[in-house]
Amino acid sequence: MQTIITVVGQDKVGIVAAVSTKLAALHINILDISQTIMEGSFTMMLLGKLPEQTDFKQLQQELTEFGQSQDLTIRIQRQEIFDAMQSL
Q1: Mean of the pLDDT values across residues 40-58?
Q2: Alpha-carbon distance 88 to 86, whole Å?
Q3: How many separate domains does the chain show?
Q4: Is 19 left (phi over 0), alpha (psi -120 to 50) or beta?
Q5: Residue 35 maps to which CATH number?
Q6: Does residue 59 carry a pLDDT above 80?
Q7: pTM for the complete prediction?
Q8: How big is the CA angle at 47 (ends 5 and 11), to the nearest 5 degrees?
Q9: In 10 A of CB 31, how many CB atoms?
Q10: Among residues 83, 86, 77, 84, which one has the least CA distance to residue 4?
Q11: Domain coverage including residue 47
Q12: Pseudo-torsion of CA 22, 28, 33, 38, nearest 10°?
């Protein structure tokens, strides 16, 4: 399953490294990534591929908690839901 993951927070050293390390530990492959910094605010959007049989709710919770521990907001959505919302 492919997912869209967004990361938002105050810019600081190591955000990309921390998030990509966490995703690797969860066996999420990064297929595409984009990030920008606007007036001190960091924003990253990435397309990830999850392993088969991933518990999506548990993954959402784990990424939310990780984000909170890093002072970031991390959200994950299934790509098909994200695509449907963008086509409205």
Answers
A1: 93
A2: 6
A3: 1
A4: alpha
A5: 3.30.70.260
A6: yes
A7: 0.86
A8: 50
A9: 12
A10: 77
A11: 2-86
A12: -30
